[in-house]
């Protein structure tokens, strides 16, 4: 168990927040993870299918080492880690202090339903008379005022939405566990004095507030009010300003003399607002503006009440804060003209709504039917850039992710309907800039027949009342089309989350011009405030993969800070828990039944159940406890276990998933391996909604217990071995990614071997002189190199190469050849491959035939060296996507469009008279880069779009270059005779294949390293302990490479941080006598945890890499491969237990 | 517009106008929103998107030879919807001015506008019957009135136009405005 000094706060529990929290928790820090929503998961909770696999895979983010520290099941349902404390309905309200020692104040909205008591039976929701739109289903379905925010969450507690609740109190009455408490008492004790000379104001305020449960008194004048104050203490005074006799300000002054602590809120008409402001200077808390409207006034008073009572507020100290506040979706019906008729025309939906339509947990159970009339959907249009790339929507940026999710949605629609759905995507540029995006798009177009129509659609119309949405658009050559669709999906862009300005002010971070978090140069996680880091879309528009990388980068920064302030990783004290060896004892199962007060006894025949269980084999005793979930009940159970010496424990209670941490603590206390303890659910069967008779309920409970006993008695009692870790890292590649990664690890106090094949560090960064944003890359290079050279923990090998490597996570042995030709053998626990990529070479477009034809890199270098003088150039043509985005290099190199924008803006700046033409297919100006695209257009750069089957033609004659390209808008050929032709050849793999062989990892078809999982494990290899970052993984820019490098350092540290790592309790093993060495299991293992040891002639399992998925056991023809905790005998006895009643 | 005026305009204004037109359109990314929104696009020979493209590529003569810009009804849909926030309708106005300045306004669209403005200047409002009469005279085409006869009949039947001339209620009152505009045009 790792316990480290230091803690962090993660604000926002979406995918980035969860990743950051898990990262820090895995390093051993205590993490407080908060979210203002009542559920975990952020936007991801609503999305069932993720590109490129078109299913989920969130669970792949769960810890891979020390995985027993978290419960291991669907992460969409819930997250339980011993170092993570989750607080929902909670907001950060104050932050003080300095980096490394912040004092943060959190406020949790008081929960009407007590999560500790709620058993999720749903009775409350059944009786609730209120029905409102369900946010989880993006408003496509209805929910009650007391509801489950996410239907599949565990633990699934009901929550009350006080905004729509009518306070009828029905749910409070019916709740079987008394979990619902509206706290009427507390409100009734809150006395409010309303002072106004007008009877109507007094009376209406009184009525409204009494209805909300407050105690209200009124006073009709200043002196009357002062009398009342003198006699009695109030908690709040609402005070009118303009009154005869004595005005409000005077009353305020006098009341302050009498009761200085009484909070006063002034009530004012518009005319006296200034007086109200004055009043605030002499001690009024706030002011309310007349005329009053109960819908706005009442919530204001309730908010004041909550603020005054400081309900749910508490303060804690943390070392660092990570802001993963996420994003809001653009509301197409909001500000502006709503030309798409969203919310007005039926069957115009947003992308999120479409996700809910196709979702199996959605309102239509995954059937493709329209929201308005339930008609089968057969023709769908996706409209891109709704609220993005639109000055009118104040968005000169691209939302980055919509292109891909629209393609994914179109594919899903095709798949759901066996290709019946006609899917059209209307777009401006299809931004397929990520790894494998282009092939996915091509698959959608060519294999599935999704139609891509270039052109922005301006509006959706309804040609006749009750008709279908109609779109008028022009195709590229100017022909008008009018088409009717069953459904129009708006790819709504992203906006900063509500309240981000407040959050930024509170935490002291800067926002950019669109309200997203402003990042520091060359970082995807550092904000303007030291100690506060950003993760995910809060700093702008990221898909899951990028968010995960960025979240890990943020957690590395947080950890680095906490470490530097003394909350060190290396100082971790290792307290090893020694479990009792019970392998020679016969199983003795103690069964603990939670009676849940007496409610279980009422619903089932407990005596009979107890008698039955006592008779089962190996059950040594049965105990009943009133409520195991309480501290008291749990101590009783602990005592019983300690006294009777049983070596297996079966608990029959509710919500088994919440016991992970408790069982581990219990195990540590009584010295029993928690793998020998099991919790089964005996509560669900007696839920009121089931309407089971006592006999039926008893039978269900008997079965559950019998199965639990069956599983426990066959449980292998041997202990998981702890593997020693060599706490050193090897980083291959000394470019910016490799260097950043090495520094990240070394700064936590671990040794790093950094191997670079060239003479000097820096890699591709050596050749970059400017960035689009204007940050100087050479300064970054210098600083980083000097840090590397000075760092005592980094052993640098230049002119060196890796010859051979073997070993497993925790202990790799690698031989390198050094500069002088001698060899050296390095021992290390983790490996990071950061070998970079290179600018692709080309033979297309006359490259090599003329000095006037150069690549983007060459242009940048020659501009820097002065070889090219912009003043001498009359015209420059740039061709994008040279040899790329078509087979065999069918991927987007991601950086060429920004390079072209950067270089063309520079050329135009140096020589505004120059004509610059960029011939492109789709401009990949994703995110905030869009604004530079706009700038380039404004600067007069001419962009001409071309199709892959109509490429520009280049002829070289007498050293002169001419280019002919077809302009699709005019449908004519344009002839250009540039002084310089610049080719964007993109990025190609650079020798990854050889390294892949040495380290036993995979490359993809383009020669780049193949990560374990694109979205959820973007920097891991399947082989645990080996990681990759930078351009050897996929093309990316400097900042993105740095973020990725930080993520790898973070992933490496979670292994390096301890001397020993214990495998999970559920791992596979091989019964060698039965094994026929067919190696099927090696192929089946998704984690690369198996290999054949030729010396021994055996199949070996790496227990640290094995995640206990059981694929090997399933494919093994001889049952030689087995999963500990799921052996055949065990499963048979579980089945027997289940069938006992029948046979 | 007098011959003399045109000379001045051509020497100086045309270039300036052209520069501002190009400036306006530079950030256009050919998304086609304008074209999709345009109520008159069906009658245009170049689509608005094509026209912007030509401005970027410097093919002004072709634009002025087309009827696209003169068909613009100034509904401002394109300006309202342009995701780049470009002043498209204004640019079309500039193109119209350019055409006039370049003396390319011999076409019927421009003549119609001129006649229209002339009646407005004289009387402070449009008198449909007189407008059409003057237009036919300028066009010097004997068949033109015949083409408009059905439309004219329909409008008259519905009472939209009346053969009776309304009173001269604004005679000469707009002269000052027209003078000012001319001054401004000469200066810009």
Explain what you see.
The complex is a heterodimer of chains A (1143) and B (188). Chain A is α/β, with parallel strands linked by helices. Chain A folds into seven domains: 7-109 and 316-326 and 496-564, FAD/NAD(P)-binding domain (3-Layer(bba) Sandwich); 185-311, Rossmann fold (3-Layer(aba) Sandwich); 329-494, FAD/NAD(P)-binding domain (3-Layer(bba) Sandwich), CATH 3.50.50.60; 589-713, Rossmann fold, CATH 3.40.50; 726-836 and 990-1057, 3-Layer(bba) Sandwich (FAD/NAD(P)-binding domain); 839-987, FAD/NAD(P)-binding domain; 1067-1123, Alpha-Beta Plaits. In chain A, 28% of the residues lie in helices and 22% in strands. Chain A has 29 helices and 55 strands. The two termini of chain A are 44 Å apart. Mean pLDDT of chain A is 89; it is low at 570-574. Chain B has two domains: 3-101, Fumarate Reductase Iron-sulfur Protein, Chain B, domain 2; 108-187, no CATH class. Chain B is 63% helix and 0% strand. Chain B is built from ten helices and no strands. The chains are: A alpha/beta (1143), B mainly alpha (188). The interface between A and B is medium-sized, with 32 and 29 residues.
CATH architecture of the largest domain in chain A: 3-Layer(bba) Sandwich
Rg of chain B is 18 Å
The number of helical elements of chain B comes to: 10
- Residue share in helix of chain A: 25-40%
CATH class division of the largest domain in chain A: Alpha Beta
Shape of chain A: globular
Structural class of chain A: alpha/beta
Largest sheet of chain A: 5 strands, parallel
At CATH level 3, the topology of the largest domain in chain B is Fumarate Reductase Iron-sulfur Protein, Chain B, domain 2
């Amino acid at each position: 168990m790792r316990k480290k000094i230091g803690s962090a706060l993660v604000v926002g529990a979406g995918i980035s927040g969860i990743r950051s929290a898990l990262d820090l928790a895995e390093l051993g820090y205590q993490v407080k993870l908060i979210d203002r929503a009542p559920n975990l998961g952020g936007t991801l909770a609503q999305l069932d299918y993720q590109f490129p696999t078109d299913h989920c895979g969130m669970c792949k983010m769960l810890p891979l080492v020390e995985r027993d520290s978290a419960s291991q099941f669907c992460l969409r349902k819930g997250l339980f880690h011993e170092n993570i404390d989750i607080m929902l309905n909670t907001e950060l309200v104050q932050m003080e202090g300095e980096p490394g020692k912040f004092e943060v104040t959190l406020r949790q909205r008081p929960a009407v339903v007590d999560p500790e008591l709620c058993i999720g039976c749903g009775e409350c929701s059944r009786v609730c008379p209120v029905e409102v739109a369900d946010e989880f289903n993006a408003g496509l379905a209805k929910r009650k005022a007391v509801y489950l925010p996410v239907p599949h969450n565990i633990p699934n507690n009901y929550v009350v939405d006080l905004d729509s609740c009518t306070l009828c109190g029905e749910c409070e009455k019916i709740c079987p566990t008394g979990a619902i408490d509206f706290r009427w008492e507390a409100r009734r004790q809150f006395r409010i004095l309303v002072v106004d000379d007008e009877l109507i104001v007094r009376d209406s305020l009184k009525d409204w507030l009494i209805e909300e449960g407050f105690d209200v008194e009124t006073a009709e004048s200043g002196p009357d009010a002062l009398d009342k104050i003198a006699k009695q203490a109030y908690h709040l005074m609402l005070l009118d300003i303009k009154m005869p006799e004595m005005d409000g300000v005077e009353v305020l002054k006098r009341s302050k003399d009498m009761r200085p602590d009484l909070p006063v809120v002034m009530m004012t008409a518009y005319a006296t607002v200034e007086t109200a402001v004055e009043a605030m200077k002499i001690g009024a808390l706030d002011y309310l503006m007349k005329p009053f409207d109960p819908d706005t006034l009442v919530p204001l008073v309730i908010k004041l009440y909550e603020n005054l009572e400081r309900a749910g507020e508490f303060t804690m100290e943390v070392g660092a804060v990570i802001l993963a506040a996420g994003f809001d979706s653009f509301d197409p019906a909001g500000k502006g003209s709503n030309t798409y008729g969203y919310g007005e025309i039926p069957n115009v939906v947003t992308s999120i709504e479409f996700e809910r339509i196709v979702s199996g947990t959605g309102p239509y159970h995954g059937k493709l039917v329209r929201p308005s009339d339930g008609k089968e959907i057969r023709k769908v249009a996706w409209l891109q850039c709704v609220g993005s790339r639109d000055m009118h929507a104040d968005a000169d940026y691209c939302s980055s992710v919509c292109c891909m999710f629209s393609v994914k949605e179109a594919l899903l629609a095709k798949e759901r309907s066996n290709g019946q759905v006609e899917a059209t995507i209307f777009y401006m540029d299809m931004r397929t800039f990520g790894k494998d995006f282009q092939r996915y798009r091509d698959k959608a177009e060519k294999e599935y027949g999704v139609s891509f129509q270039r052109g922005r659609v301006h509006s959706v119309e309804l040609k006749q009342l009750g008709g279908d949405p109609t779109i008028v658009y022009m195709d590229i050559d100017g022909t008008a089309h009018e088409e009717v669709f069953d459904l129009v999906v708006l790819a709504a862009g992203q906006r900063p989350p509500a309240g981000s300005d407040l959050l930024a002010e509170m935490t002291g971070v800067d926002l950019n011009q669109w309200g997203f978090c402003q990042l520091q140069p060359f970082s995807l996680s550092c904000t303007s405030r030291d100690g506060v880091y950003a993760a995910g879309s809060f700093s702008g528009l990221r898909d899951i993969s990028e968010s995960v990388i960025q979240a890990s980068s943020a957690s590395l920064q947080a950890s680095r800070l906490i470490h530097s302030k003394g909350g060190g990783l290396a100082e971790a004290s290792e307290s090893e828990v020694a479990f009792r060896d019970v392998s020679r004892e016969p199983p003795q199962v103690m069964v603990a039944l939670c009676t849940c007060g007496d409610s279980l006894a009422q619903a089932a025949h407990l005596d009979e159940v107890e008698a039955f269980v006592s008779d089962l084999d190996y059950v040594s005793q049965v105990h009943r406890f009133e409520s195991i979930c309480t501290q008291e009940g749990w101590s009783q159970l602990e005592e019983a276990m300690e006294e009777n010496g049983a070596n297996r424990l079966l608990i029959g209670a509710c919500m088994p998933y919440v016991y992970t941490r408790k069982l581990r603590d219990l195990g540590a206390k009584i010295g029993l391996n928690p793998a020998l303890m099991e919790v089964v659910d005996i509560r669900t069967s007696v839920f009121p909604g089931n309407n089971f008779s006592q006999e039926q309920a008893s039978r269900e409970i008997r079965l559950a217990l019998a199965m639990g006993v069956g599983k426990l008695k066959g449980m292998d009692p041997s202990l998981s071995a702890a593997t020693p870790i060599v706490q050193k890292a090897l980083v291959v590649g000394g470019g910016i990614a490799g260097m950043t990664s090495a520094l990240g690890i070394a700064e936590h106090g671990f040794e790093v071997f950094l191997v670079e094949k060239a003479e000097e560090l820096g890699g591709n960064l050596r050749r970059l002189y400017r960035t689009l944003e204007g940050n100087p890359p050479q300064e970054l290079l210098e600083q980083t190199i000097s840090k590397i050279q000075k760092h005592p923990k980094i052993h640098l090998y230049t002119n060196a190469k890796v010859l051979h490597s073997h070993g497993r996570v925790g202990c790799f042995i690698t031989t390198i050849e050094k500069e002088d030709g001698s060899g050296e053998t390095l021992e290390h626990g983790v490996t990071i491959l950061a070998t970079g990529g290179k600018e692709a070479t080309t033979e297309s477009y006359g490259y090599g035939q003329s000095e006037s034809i150069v690549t983007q890199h060459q242009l940048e270098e020659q501009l820097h060296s002065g070889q090219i003088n912009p003043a001498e150039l009359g015209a420059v043509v740039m061709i994008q996507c040279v040899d790329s985005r078509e087979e065999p290099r069918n991927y987007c190199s991601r950086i060429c469009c920004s390079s072209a924008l950067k270089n063309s803006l520079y050329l135009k700046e140096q020589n505004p008279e120059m004509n610059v033409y960029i011939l492109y297919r789709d401009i990949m100006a994703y995110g905030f880069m869009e604004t530079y695209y706009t700038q380039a257009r404004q600067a007069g750069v001419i962009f001409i779009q071309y199709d892959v089957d109509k490429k520009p033609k280049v002829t070289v004659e007498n050293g002169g270059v001419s280019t002919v390209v077809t302009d699709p808008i005019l449908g004519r050929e344009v002839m250009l005779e540039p002084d310089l032709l610049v080719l964007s050849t993109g990025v190609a793999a650079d020798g990854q294949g050889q390294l892949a062989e040495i380290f036993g990892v995979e490359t993809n078809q383009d020669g780049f390293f193949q990560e374990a999982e694109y979205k959820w494990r973007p920097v891991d290899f399947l082989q645990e302990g080996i990681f990759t970052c930078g351009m050897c993984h996929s093309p990316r820019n400097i900042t993105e490479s740095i973020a990725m490098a930080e993520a790898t350092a973070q992933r490496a540290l979670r292994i390096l941080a301890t001397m020993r790592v214990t495998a999970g309790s559920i791992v596979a093993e091989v019964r060698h006598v039965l094994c026929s060495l067919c190696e099927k299991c090696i192929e089946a293992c998704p984690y690369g945890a198996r290999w054949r040891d030729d010396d021994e002639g055996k199949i070996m399992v790496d227990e640290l890499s094995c995640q206990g998925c059981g694929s090997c056991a399933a494919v093994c023809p001889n049952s030689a491969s087995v999963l500990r905790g799921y052996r055949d005998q065990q499963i048979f006895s579980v089945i027997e237990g289940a069938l006992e009643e029948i046979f | 517009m007098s011959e003399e005026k045109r000379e001045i305009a051509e020497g100086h204004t045309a270039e300036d106008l052209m520069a501002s037109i190009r400036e306006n359109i530079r950030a256009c990314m050919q998304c086609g929103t304008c074209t999709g929104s345009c109520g008159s696009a069906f009658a245009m020979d170049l689509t608005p998107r094509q026209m912007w493209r030509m401005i970027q590529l410097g093919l002004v003569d072709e634009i002025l030879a087309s009827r696209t810009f003169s068909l613009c009804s100034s509904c401002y849909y394109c300006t309202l919807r342009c995701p780049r926030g470009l002043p498209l309708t204004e640019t079309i106005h500039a193109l119209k001015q350019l055409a006039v300045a370049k003396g390319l306004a011999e076409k019927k669209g421009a003549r119609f506008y001129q006649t229209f403005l002339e009646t407005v200047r004289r009387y402070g409002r449009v008198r449909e019957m007189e407008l059409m009469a003057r237009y036919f005279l300028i066009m010097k085409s004997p068949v033109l009135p015949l083409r408009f006869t059905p439309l004219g009949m329909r409008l008259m039947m519905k009472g939209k136009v009346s053969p009776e001339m309304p009173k001269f209620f604004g005679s000469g009152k707009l002269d000052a405005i027209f003078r000012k505009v001319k001054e401004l045009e000469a200066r810009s």
